[in-house]
Design goal:
single chain; 336 residues; 10-stranded antiparallel barrel; 9 helices; 29% helix; 25% strand; globular
């Protein structure tokens, strides 16, 4: 993809709210980043090179969920009209996740994926707790059923074997594509679980590399056992070609509360990449582009990291906050 097209996509995703003055505190604290920033960059590094991504929440004109719904739908329509995103699957579940009656929380987040060899791809993240009319699990199950993945609910409940209070459904992801490889993702936040135990749960997927998660967590956070300060997030991915069996399971390790600075995290990430056979130069170069301050002067740029090995080939992804509001963001999403 050429740079000009990428710039046009990014300008569209930031319009018009990107022109606003950055204040000391967010008027609308976004789910995108730990400090409430509404934009996050990430890079997936593999032996094929780097895949760049950007995630945004289209900020509403006023701090309310109905206004957030309006902003989110405006961005969705712009991506469909200007860049060929497909909205059919989203339309099938829109009333579930963007309800008219007593909506609460965030409305929608949008991601764009950029690769050197093809045009941009788009994805949305929806809120399973969009109002009190349905529980998170009820809304997710209904959405899966409408999209033709009703039988996948058996895998969801087996994965969340401890119950949906401890293995909490937090996001519903949809690719804005109509191809057979278009993905439906269910995201979980896991409370009070050891990485090795989550790793065992992830064996439900078709392409899981068993035993990887525990050591990955330990090396990145410096801690063994449960990550109690900030819980691990994971997802199960379904496609038409894979049917009701999860194609993959991915865990996202929180980083910002488990180091004294972003420099420490950088060193840990680079070391892990070397351990799994990936070069760290692309990661470090992109990090230097994202960072607007010395890495020693805060611990809020790195948010999460994930790793996956398929058919012996590793891929590691790191996620970076735009850090508009806090260099040392507090814990978020505590159980309760």
């Amino acid at each position: 993809m050429d740079g000009e097209q990428g710039a046009r996509v990014l300008r569209t995703m930031l319009s018009p709210w990107g022109e606003r003055k950055i204040t000391d505190h967010p008027e609308w604290s976004s789910d995108v980043c730990a400090d409430g920033s509404p934009i996050e960059f990430s890079a997936a590094i593999s032996d094929h090179g780097a895949q760049i991504r950007v995630l945004v929440e289209a900020l509403p004109e006023e701090p309310s969920t109905p206004a957030a719904q309006k902003s989110a739908l405006g961005l969705t329509h712009a991506l469909i009209e200007n860049f060929g995103a497909a909205g059919g699957r989203l339309a099938a579940v829109e009333d579930l996740f963007l309800p008219n009656e007593d909506p609460t929380g965030f409305a929608m987040m949008h991601a764009a994926i950029f690769t050197p060899t093809s045009g941009p791809e788009f994805k949305v993240y929806l809120n399973p707790y969009a109002n009190n009319g349905m529980s998170r699990s009820e809304r997710t199950r209904e959405a899966l059923d409408r999209l033709g993945f009703g039988k996948a609910w058996e895998a969801i409940t087996a994965y969340a074997r401890r119950g949906f209070d401890l293995d909490r459904i937090v996001y519903f992801g949809l690719d804005l594509s109509d191809s057979p490889e278009s993905r439906v993702k269910v995201y979980f936040r896991h409370y009070d679980i050891a990485p090795a135990d989550l790793d065992a749960c992830m064996e439900i997927s078709a392409h899981h590399e068993a035993g990887l998660l525990g050591e990955f967590c330990r090396k990145l956070t410096g801690r063994a056992g449960e990550l109690t300060d900030q819980p691990i997030v994971s997802n199960l991915t379904f496609t038409d070609t894979g049917g009701h069996v999860p194609l993959s399971a991915t865990a996202y390790v929180p980083l910002w509360l488990y180091a004294e600075s972003d420099r420490t995290i950088r060193d840990r990430v680079s070391s892990v990449m070397a351990d799994i056979g990936l070069p760290s130069d692309s990661y470090e170069s992109l990090l230097n582009c994202v960072a607007r301050r010395p890495l020693t002067e805060g611990c809020g740029i790195h948010t999460y990291a994930s790793v996956r090995v398929q058919q012996g080939r590793p891929r590691m992804t790191t996620y970076w906050s735009s850090e508009l509001y806090d260099r040392y963001p507090p814990a978020r999403y505590q159980r309760g």
